[in-house]
Predict the structure.
Amino acid sequence: MMIRRLTQLLIGLYLYGASMAFLLRAGLGLDPWDVFHQGLSHHVGLSFGMLVNLVGAVVLLLWIPLRQRPGVGTVANVLVIGTSVDLTMMILPAVEDFAVRVGLLLGGVALNGIAGAMYIGAGLGPGPRDGLMTGLVRRTGWSIRLVRIGIELAVLVLGWLLGGTVGVGTVLYALAIGPLVQTFLPLFMIPEHNRRAQKTAAVNP
C-alpha cells in the first residue's frame, strides 16, 4: 500500500509541475503563487522551477513557529514540482498560435486538477503553501477562506508588481481548480486515508 501511495504521490507532483509549464507556455495568466514565482524570476538569475522549489523551502521554514509537522509528501512537493516545471519547459516549445495557447491553458488547468487530486489522495502530507495556510488558521482562529484569500491576494499583487502574468487564466484557475479537484479526488483516494485526504482537499482548491 505504501508503494502505491508513494508512486501516486510522485506521479501527481510531476504532473502538477507539468501543468504549471502548460500555463506558462499559454501566457494567458497564472495562479496567484505562480504569478509570484514568475515575477520573481524576472529579477533573479534562477529558473522558474528552481524558484518554485526555493520558495517552497522558505515557506516550509515558516511552519516552525506555527508548529506544523511536514510529511513525506511535503518534502517531495518542495523537490519535485519545480524540477518538473523546468523539465517540461525544456521539451515544450513556445507557441504563438492563439488557439494552441488556449488549448494549453485549458489542458493545464484540467491536468492541475487531476494532479492535485492524485497527491492529495495519497495522504502523505500537504504542500508547504497549504500547510502555511492551515497553520495560520489554527494559530489565529481565522476562517480558512479569510486566510486563503489573504495569502493568495498578497502573493498575486506582489507577483504582478514584479512582472508576473495576470490574465484570464488566473480567473479560470481560481474558479475551476476547486471543483476539478473535488471531482477527481474520489478516483485517487487511498481507502484508509479518505478522511485525511478529504480534509486536505477542503482547504487546497
Summary: The radius of gyration is 16 Å.
